[in-house]
Amino acid sequence: MGNDMSASRSSGAVRAVRDPERHAHDPRTRAYLRDYTSVLDSVPFPSLLVDHRWDVAVTNSAYDLLFDGFRPHPTAMPRHNFLRLVLFHPDAGRVLRERETSWCLPMLAQFAAALDVHRQDPVLKEIRHEIGQDPIMNAAFQQGLPHWVRAVGPGAVDHDGAVRPVQHPDPRWGRTTCRVVSETPSTLRAAGLTRLTLALHPHGGTPAPEPEPAPESAAPAPEHRGAPRLRVVRDTDTSDRG
User: Among residues 83, 93, 79, which one has the least CA distance to residue 9?
Assistant: First the structure.
């Protein structure tokens, strides 16, 4: 595993971790981010810093291991953009179990909220265009997502504390769950960054809660190789129109 991990890091498909200091506008913040990067790498759980676009600023080695060996993708590599990784990388379902209902729909809910706040952000507009290029994903965003948000409530937009299923490549973790912990200390907030940590549960550890209810309009499609798909049933309120 170690050799594979080193190979994936040296591959041209995975660019180097971005310099978090590009988010700093003063020496104090730059020094803080340097030290925070060291703190991140001391954590045994997968952890990363992202901005409001989900562009990845820093990852730790546990995060790199979780997504090790992913095939090249132009925009959705694990150390490029976390939202694009979840939505578009064909290998993501290998790690993110129950991908459509447990990962894609919550991330789409957060994306919709971010787009409301940052309507002119060029990266978010690009991601919206990419969603629109996939008819099934676009239908899920426009039709399935509102049903899902109504079913699970406003907490769908904030995934801090949510328990999500994962399949870790290290058999010591294997098929398990993780709790998503979102933290934004004041200095990170000033730099436009948020820390996400996937607190892995050991075998026989903290059980996942009952699955969040998903309406038929957001029912998961069967797992298959290739691009992720979300199956959407048309809204019965509108199916007879026109």
Answer: 79
Best CA proximity match to 71, nearest among 11, 6, 133, 1: 11
Closest CA to 163 of 114, 215, 200: 200
Q: Which residue type, as a one-letter code, is found at position 6?
A: S
| Number of other residues whose CB lies within 10 A of the CB of residue 177 | 19
Q: Confirm if 176 and 197 have CB atoms less than 8 A apart.
A: no
**CA distance to 38, 39, 48, per residue, from 193 (Å):** 16, 15, 10
Token code pair at residue 109: 């809910």
- 50 forms beta bridges with 56, 194
The pLDDT of residue 25 is above 70: yes
Q: Which amino acid is at 4?
A: D
The 10 Å Cβ neighbour count of residue 158 is 14
pLDDT digits (tens, 9 = 90+) for 153-198: 877 777 789 999 999 999 999 999 999 999 999 999 999 999 999 9
> What CA–CA distance (Å, rounded) separates 198 from 163?
9
Helix ranges, the chain (H): 2-10, 27-41, 61-66, 82-88, 105-117, 122-133, 135-139, 145-152, 186-190
Closest CA to 205 of 168, 159, 158: 168
Rounded to an integer, what distance in angstroms lies between the CA atom of residue 90 and that of residue 67?
12
CA distance 206 to 77: 29
State which H helix or E strand residue 178 sits in. Answer: strand 175-183
- In this predicted structure, the answer to whether residue 149 has a pLDDT above a threshold of 70 is yes
